[in-house]
Amino acid sequence: SLRMKFSAPLFLAVASSSVDAFNVGVGGPSLSLRTRQLKNAVALAPASSSIIKSSQLYATDVIASGDGEESGGDPSADVDVAEVEEESPMEEVDDNDDAPSDVDVTIEEGQGGETGETASSSTMSMSMSMSDVEMAQQLQKLLILASSTDRGQFASTKEHEEMDRIIYSMETSTSEEKTTSVDKSAMMEGTWELLYSSTQLFRSSPFFMAGRAVCQTEEEAQRYDWFCDMHRAALAISEIGKVRQIISSDRMVSEFEVNVGSVPFLSDLIPFTYSGGMPFTINGAIVSSADITPTADEKAWEIYMDTVEIKGSNIPLLRQLLDNEQVPVSLQSRKLASVLEENVSGYNTPKPIFETTYLDDTIRISRDQDGKVFVYGKTSDVTEPTEYKSVDSDLGILKLLEGLNDNFFKLSM
């Protein structure tokens, strides 16, 4: 159609030029609250062993405590099974009964009344604890795989399949009360770091989700996937740093930090046999912002793309230009969308859907419209975007000189 012939290529051109400009310019039962131990771990580097250690501590604590009082369990759940058998008659469950698979026995209320009720509550608490233990073990396994593959970037097909299987099992095992609404400020608001992605890490940015939403057919969606893969391949010399989403009651800010070698492939520039680069890097963050509104079923967000900016550039002069509040330099996507709606018949501004499942208040699983998976860990309750003013605009040269002085010259400054 005319719309796709015009709007999709234009969007891809804008997407490519916007990010390329960066490289040129800046280069069932719920889990226990013990998963708060992950908050410090996920704030570290993606491959940090602290994430693994924290998940191991969580699994150990759940097993040791039986999820105890912190998860709302009844302290009486530690009743000895032998005492329960004596005080409350017990019937064996017939193999043909349609009993839940995680309950081995049924405890009926005996003559003691209260005793039978206590025993039944005790058994259900133990059953829930087992489910929590299994969930903790699955989460630990997922985090180990995600950490060892740099959030899935270097995962093999088999590893991706295993992580996707674990994620699906955790989604389907999470109680409905956790997943029925994304509009839960106590859970959703705060700073979230990306722990795992089944696709390119930047695909959870509102900008790239809006680009996908422009596509109307399966063929167009495949082309867009290919474009994103080629875009990442073209930026192979860049290193992706932290990827985070900062969520407030009605706003999502996506921060995508990137480091690029500023003098790569030295042998191509000067007649030296050494083919490495210089220890100077171009740093910056691509920051995209959008409004978020719960969908009618409250199981997802509808995203309305707003702006794309480059922040924290360490290139002199350009940094001052980008940070100029008097004349802001940013991509105003809504203005672009307005032009397209006025000039392209049938064009409507895309508003992608982003589904979310909360495992608890520190871990959430989100999916885009194609079901691609993004696992996020909450690191803080901060809802303000990151301030990059402390980043020096010196290409890292000052840090290099400081290192040389500290290690060799040792001059007092």
Salient structural properties:
413 residues; alpha+beta; eight-stranded antiparallel barrel; two-stranded antiparallel ribbon; 40% helix; 19% strand; globular
Can you summarize this structure?
Helix content is 40%, strand content 19%.
Structural commentary:
The protein is of the alpha+beta class and 413 residues long. The radius of gyration is 26 Å and the shape is globular. The protein has helices spanning 2-25, 38-41, 49-65, 81-87, 114-148, 157-173, 176-179, 185-188, 206-214, 218-234, 318-322, 333-343, 397-409; strands at residues 90-91, 106-107, 190-197, 238-247, 251-261, 281-294, 300-311, 331-332, 353-358, 363-367, 373-380. The longest helix has 35 residues, at 114-148. It contains 13 helices and eleven strands. Strands 3-4-5-6-7-9-10-11 form an eight-stranded antiparallel beta barrel, surrounded by four helices.
Number of helices: 13
- The tally of strands reads 11
Provide the β-strand percentage band.
Answer: 15-25%
> What's the main sheet like?
8 strands, antiparallel, barrel
Unreliable stretches covering 5 or more consecutive residues: 1-15, 17-54, 65-130
Strand-and-helix sequence, N→C?
Answer: HHHHEEHHHHEHHEEEEHEHEEEH
Intertermini distance: 66 Å
Helicity level, as a percent range?
A: 40-55%
Task: Name the overall outline.
Answer: globular
Strand order of the largest sheet: 3-4-5-6-7-9-10-11
What is the average per-residue confidence, as pLDDT, rounded to a whole number?
73
Q: How would you classify the helix and strand content by structural class? A: alpha+beta
What radius of gyration results from the CA coordinates? Answer: 26 Å
